[in-house]
Amino acid sequence: MRIKKDMKLADVIQLNYMLIPVIHRFGINLGFGDKTVADVCRENEVDINFFLQLVNAYHDKDYFPKEELQTIPVKNIVNYLKMTHSSYLNDKLSEIEQKIISLQSEDTEDQKYILLIRNFFEGYKSELTEHIMHEENVVFPYVLAVEEIIKNQNFTERNREIFESFSIEKYEEGHNDVEEKLMDLKTIMIKYLTPPANSTLYHTIIQDLFKLEEDLNYHSRIEDKVLTPKVILMEKSICNLI
Amino acid sequence: MARSTILIADNSCMIRKGLRSILQNLENSEVIQLIDNKEDVCGIVHKRKPDILIINPDMLPGDCLDVKRELFNENKLSLILLSNRKNLKNDLKADGYINYMDGQNTILDMMQEILNKNNKSSFPNKNSETISSREKNILKHIALGLTNKEIADQLFISIHTVVTHRKNITQKLGIKSVSGLTVYAILHNLISMDEVK
Ligand SMILES: [Fe+2]
Ligand SMILES: [Fe+2]
Questions:
Q1: Residue B175: closest CA among chain A residues belongs to which residue?
Q2: Domain named HTH luxR-type: which ranges (chain B) (predicted)?
Q3: In this structure, what DSSP letter does residue B39 have?
């Protein structure tokens, strides 16, 4: 079922609870009573078009409105991606980490194996953090500069410097798969480890890993299929400008 | 594994499309075409060479045995009859039967059985393979943090061989990253935790 602007946002969430963190990233908090999607977007100054494209793409795996999404200004896409990054760094990763630590403090002989998982996850966490920092410090400033140049049809000195220092092609090449280690961790926990005494917590961790992977997949899809092609086109038109 | 291809032939569009949507729950198979016209059956079967043909006997040209001879000799096609008639089994011979009144699970179970039967002949069961002692040795070196070149030098084999082994190990275990392989190696006592850098 496609999500439309005159639906009640509460009904949308009932339809798919996985959308709760997604709307949160737009700065929308729960407790919206009977307000429609359009109402809530207006109140929170969220671009309704972008919001609908995103939640629908998230809700239905087969729906990916590439062309429509590419009409969204780079600034909005970047803002959304940044919100997602901070939810990974500030919430999701540390939540899972905390759970693994609690597993460890259980009084069992599984200590050694849990330490392995913990170290593995720490390694993953720093890998993902590095990936995200590169996007925030290099890639996003670059694409924002590109958008500004197009808007003004002119270079400021600073923008020229940024424009010449990087290209989206470099990003495309180096944009590696951040889910690989995560999949390995799931596989190890499912296939090769005997669950520790607190199996409920262990199961929750595996479920969290599945959710995180799905979310990351979706996130990367926006970076690769929406942001990158859009910026490639913009770069071309800047080259014509010069 | 190659996907099995399926054709559905029935006069009723509700049956054709309904059955196709039920069969979407099957893995490793795909309904490639729906046929609504009796005249087209032979031509389409010959052209598309499906693995499975699900057909209403009313759409069969001639009686079933004839079709078996005509359509089945050249390719290994499984025939499933689709009908609202009871006792179809007694009248016509086929590899499987679907009755309009069958529930979804009955249909899927029957189809799965046919898919398994078809695949068994051509595909040995590859998933249950364990890694060989040769591969274990390579895995141990990977876990110790050695590069492909270093492993090749130490074991007196070519880099190409190392790469091939690595690919097989990854495929068998379902683990891609070096750190994941390292955890596996520790869990299976190929190396000890203190050896890891
Ligand atoms: Fe990102
Ligand atoms: Fe990324």
A1: A184
A2: 124-189
A3: G
